[in-house]
């Protein structure tokens, strides 16, 4: 791993140089953006326009999601192509709370039922909507629903030693199945329109600048805390075992570790983080619909991580912001080019930058200083731990 | 009995051609031109009663609003309208009787009741036609519109009929008419038996109507027949579901088989596989465009040109992908997955830029359109049959290549043990390239077939890729039989779940089942046996 002396601990969690820079940037942005939006006049050179606040907040949520994927992929070697499902489930839990907050202000003015249920001519609230008018309960569900799904799915998959591309494919099937399910009107989640027309959260108007700023700050804090949690896990003794599983699963098993338990733990933590990211994402973009479950979305998350740099955590966050900034820019300016660029990115990163942006910068730094000996100690190249298919 | 005897007499009378009654038929035809709808309905009946075959075109023309009344002498003519002028044809002699521009004639009006009467009458009249196909259609029409009035005609036709198949149809039509008539119960019970033997949805509803109104023995007989018919229908329904399942399974097999080869031999999941299918479909479109432009008369054969073209195009794209990108990623299957996903996005966008985002029209050759009726309960569409047959040919051809060619031998060797294959002198790099090319080429050929049943759009491949993965994962790697069994079981399961779970829920259930199945057999149904722990 990285050389030990350069790590400075925070709350007892060893943070490397890049991690400190990352935390500093996240905290600076978390403070600066709301301040510059609220405290400066629109004409001022330092003013952050209001439309940018939820957009940047969205990037922060994506960054947290990417950190969660990096935890399972970069450190445990599990390529999940279904993390979009956990993200969307967290988002739906939040969306259900926001729907209940609308109360009688909907188009149909029904205090007990969300608009789409009135439209479908339903008479009462389905049981699984109970409790979602209570904020703490909804927040508990944001954690529990993705967590429990990951627990059950992971337990089934890891116990029977489904690994490698097989695991990737069934995670993809999982999110595909959920997408089909949520598209159904009679599932009770709004069908293909999803949940939208939110009014307020905890009594604060979602359209107001102050609420948006608060959500932005919450996303920034969640990203920083999520990073710290992941960092804590990967630097702990458990993290060492997880990395060992990534590099040589059978050997770790033969040494007496219960491989499935470690994998399951990391997978569930990652799913919960993804759920939190989804819950923060929904009030900022104002809608959640089943297309969030689409397998293509989940694969896209993986390329964020690959671009930023697997197995670095902050690299994943960087990749998420870079790709999504590119997406916002190109889908606006050259919509026909975007898929070429995204596709090219997939190919370019896997062929020429297997360690991502962060890995390349590190190599450049190491090479510049002539510290060839350091290279040997660094994290094994991501290609080496993908696990060959048998031979 | 008296009535029956009268009808029989009438029918016999009908059978005898009577040219001498020309003025009778002329009067009957002219009566169609005037009076209320009721009067004209009875005029149509009277015309049919003459039994003259010349009444057939007249009634047809009336139904099609091509019958005209000449105001000058109240004579009725059949009119053929060509660009505003009406050519009048004398219905009795069949000769042309002048041209009109519309002022001196008026169209004979019909309403729906009259049209229904005409259909039934035509059924009765055409029963006696000399053309077997016309008689068969007439019997079918009379079954669908049972009319007790036509019983006499039917009896006469049955007595005269020599073709047993048509006779059976006439019997059924007669039975349907008997149920609606006021005949004695004994005769109706016999009719119930005939309908019970026919055993399709139409006879079921006739029987159910009867059961609701009948009493005593007749009711019991009807109930019994209903039970039989329902049982037979359920059976046919299962056969039909099985067929739909096989048909869906063939589609899945076509889409997945190339994937199974590349995954089996190279351990590479090719996410761009679906795009190879799409390329094959667009090749078909392109070839058909060429045919439309240069040889429209040979359009029916365009698919035979499209097949090798799609094979070549998709195969070359596959080889280019392998040589250009994938060979640098061997031993890193997860990264290969990502890179091929990138390729798939780029291919989609390329096709979207070249051909536009909307669906493209791919024509179906005439020999592939239409349906084949197996029994009353089961009709198969020709294009589905063609696809099932085509899939079988592709599958068998591939099996033969794998088993009996040098390339197939090398491919199997590399699948089973790559280092050992290398050490006996097989160039595994070359085998990889060829295998990838072959897998992609088969996907291209699948695209030709799928272009016949699906929309040809840039997203075509996306809709098959997850299903194809499931088939491969379910069936197991390195064995084409596994892919076959996987595709067929998923296809058939899907079609049997659909009726009671709905299409979407059925699909979700299948996904969940496959996910659970993987728990029991992580390497699929037909896994290669080995002793490697990492396998």
Give the SSE map.
The complex is a heterodimer of chains A (391) and B (535).
Chain A lengths: L7 E3 L2 E3 L1 H22 L13 H25 L6 H20 L12 H5 L15 H25 L4 H20 L11 E2 L3 E2 L2 E2 L3 H27 L1 H11 L1 H6 L4 H27 L1 E2 L6 H14 L5 H20 L4 H15 L3 H14 L2 H6 L14
Antiparallel strand pairs in A: 1-2, 3-6, 4-5
Chain B lengths: L1 H14 L6 H10 L5 H13 L5 H9 L3 E4 L4 E8 L2 E5 L6 E5 L4 E3 L4 H15 L5 H13 L6 H10 L3 H17 L4 H14 L2 H13 L2 H51 L6 H22 L7 H23 L8 H23 L15 E5 L2 E4 H23 L1 H11 L1 H6 L4 H23 L11 H14 L4 H22 L1 H18 L15
Antiparallel strand pairs in B: 1-2, 1-5, 2-3, 3-4, 6-7
Helix pairs in contact in B: 1-7, 2-3, 3-5, 4-5, 5-6, 6-8, 7-8, 8-9, 9-10, 9-11, 10-11, 11-15, 11-18, 11-19, 11-20, 12-13, 12-14, 12-18, 13-18, 15-16, 15-18, 16-18, 19-20, 20-21
Keywords for this entry:
heterodimer; A: two-stranded antiparallel ribbon; 6 strands; globular; disordered N terminus; B: 535 residues; alpha+beta; five-stranded antiparallel β-sheet; elongated
């Amino acid at each position: 791993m990285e050389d030990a002396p350069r790590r400075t601990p925070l709350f007892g969690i060893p943070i490397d140089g890049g991690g400190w820079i990352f935390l500093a940037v996240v905290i600076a942005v978390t403070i600066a953006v709301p301040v510059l939006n609220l405290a400066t006049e629109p004409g001022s050179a330092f003013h952050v326009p209001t439309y940018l606040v939820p957009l940047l907040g969205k990037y922060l949520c994506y960054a947290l999601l990417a950190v969660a994927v990096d935890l399972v992929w970069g450190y445990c070697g599990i390529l999940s192509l279904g993390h979009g499902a956990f993200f969307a489930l967290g988002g739906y839990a939040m969306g259900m709370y926001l729907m209940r907050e609308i109360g009688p202000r909907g188009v149909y003015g029904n205090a007990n039922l969300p608009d789409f249920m009135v439209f479908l001519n339903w008479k009462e609230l389905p049981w699984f909507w109970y409790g979602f008018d209570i904020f703490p309960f909804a927040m508990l569900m944001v954690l529990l629903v993705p967590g429990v799904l990951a627990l059950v799915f992971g337990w089934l998959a890891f116990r029977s030693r489904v690994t490698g591309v097989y695991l990737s494919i069934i995670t993809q099937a999982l999110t595909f199945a959920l997408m089909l399910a949520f598209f159904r009107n009679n599932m009770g989640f709004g069908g293909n329109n999803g949940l939208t027309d939110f009014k307020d959260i905890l009594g604060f108007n979602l359209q107001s600048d102050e609420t948006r700023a608060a959500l932005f700050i919450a996303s920034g804090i969640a990203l920083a805390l999520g990073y710290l949690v992941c960092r804590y896990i990967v630097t702990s003794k458990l993290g060492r075992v997880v990395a060992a599983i990534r590099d040589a699963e059978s050997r770790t098993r033969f040494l007496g570790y219960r491989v499935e338990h470690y994998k399951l733990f990391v997978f569930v933590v990652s799913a919960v983080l993804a759920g939190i990211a989804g819950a923060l994402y929904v009030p900022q973009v104002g809608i959640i619909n089943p297309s969030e479950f689409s397998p293509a979305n989940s694969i896209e998350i993986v390329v964020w991580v690959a671009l930023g740099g697997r197995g670095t955590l902050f690299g994943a966050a960087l990749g998420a912001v870079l790709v999504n900034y590119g997406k916002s820019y190109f889908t606006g300016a050259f919509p026909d080019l975007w898929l070429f660029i995204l596709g090219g990115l997939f190919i370019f990163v896997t062929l020429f930058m297997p360690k991502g942006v962060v890995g390349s910068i590190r190599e450049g730094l190491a090479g510049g200083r002539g510290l060839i000996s350091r290279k040997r100690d660094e994290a094994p190249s991501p290609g080496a731990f993908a696990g060959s298919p048998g031979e | 009995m008296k009535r029956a005897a009268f009808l029989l007499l009438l029918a016999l009378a009908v059978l005898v051609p009577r040219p001498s009654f020309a003025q009778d038929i002329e009067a009957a035809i002219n009566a169609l031109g005037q009076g209320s709808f009721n009067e004209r309905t009875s005029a149509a009946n009277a015309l049919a009663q003459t039994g003259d075959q010349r009444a057939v075109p007249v009634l047809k023309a009336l139904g099609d609003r091509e019958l005209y009344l000449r105001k000058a002498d109240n004579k009725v003519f059949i009119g053929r309208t060509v660009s505003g002028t009406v050519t009048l044809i004398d219905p009795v002699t069949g000769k042309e009787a002048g041209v009109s521009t519309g002022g001196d004639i008026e169209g004979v009006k019909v309403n729906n009741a009259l049209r229904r009467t005409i259909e039934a009458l035509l059924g009765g009249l055409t029963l006696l036609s000399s053309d077997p196909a016309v008689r068969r259609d007439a019997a079918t029409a009379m079954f669908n519109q049972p009319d007790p009035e036509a019983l006499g005609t039917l009896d006469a036709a049955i007595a005269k009929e020599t073709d047993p198949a048509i006779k059976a149809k006439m019997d059924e039509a007669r039975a349907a008419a008997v149920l609606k008539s006021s005949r004695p119960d004994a005769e109706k019970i016999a009719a119930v038996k005939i309908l019970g033997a026919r055993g399709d949805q139409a006879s079921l509803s006739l029987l159910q109507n009867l059961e609701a109104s009948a009493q005593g023995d007749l009711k019991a007989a009807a109930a019994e027949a209903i039970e039989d018919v329902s049982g037979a229908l359920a059976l046919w329904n299962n056969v039909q579901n099985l067929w739909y399942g096989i048909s869906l399974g063939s589609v899945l097999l076509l889409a997945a088989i190339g994937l199974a080869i590349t995954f089996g031999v190279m351990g590479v999941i090719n996410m761009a596989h679906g795009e190879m299918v799409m390329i094959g479909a667009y090749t078909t479109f392109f070839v058909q465009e060429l045919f439309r432009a240069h040889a429209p008369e040979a359009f029916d054969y365009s698919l035979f040109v499209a097949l090798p073209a799609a094979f070549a195009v998709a195969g070359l794209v596959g080889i280019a992908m392998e040589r250009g990108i994938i060979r640098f990623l061997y031993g890193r299957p997860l990264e290969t997955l990502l890179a091929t996903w990138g390729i798939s996005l780029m291919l989609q966008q390329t096709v979207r830029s070249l051909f536009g985002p909307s669906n493209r029209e791919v024509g179906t050759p005439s020999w592939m359109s239409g349906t084949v009726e197996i029994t009353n309960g089961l009709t198969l569409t020709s294009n589905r049959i063609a696809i099932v047959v085509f899939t079988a040919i592709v599958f068998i051809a591939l099996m033969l290549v794998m088993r009996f060619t040098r390339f197939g031998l090398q491919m199997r060797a590399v699948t089973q043990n790559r280092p050992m294959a290398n050490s006996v002198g097989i160039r595994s790099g070359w085998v990889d390239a060829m295998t990838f090319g072959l897998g992609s080429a088969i996907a291209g050929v699948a695209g030709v077939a799928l272009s016949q049943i699906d929309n040809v759009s840039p997203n075509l491949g996306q809709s098959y890729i997850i299903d194809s993965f499931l088939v491969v994962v379910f069936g197991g790697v390195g064995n084409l039989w596994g892919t076959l069994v996987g595709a067929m079981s998923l296809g058939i399961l899907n079609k049997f779940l659909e009726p009671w779970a709905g299409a979407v829920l059925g699909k979700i259930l299948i996904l969940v089942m496959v996910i659970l199945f993987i728990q029991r057999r992580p390497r699929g149904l037909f896994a290669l046996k080995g002793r490697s722990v990492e396998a």
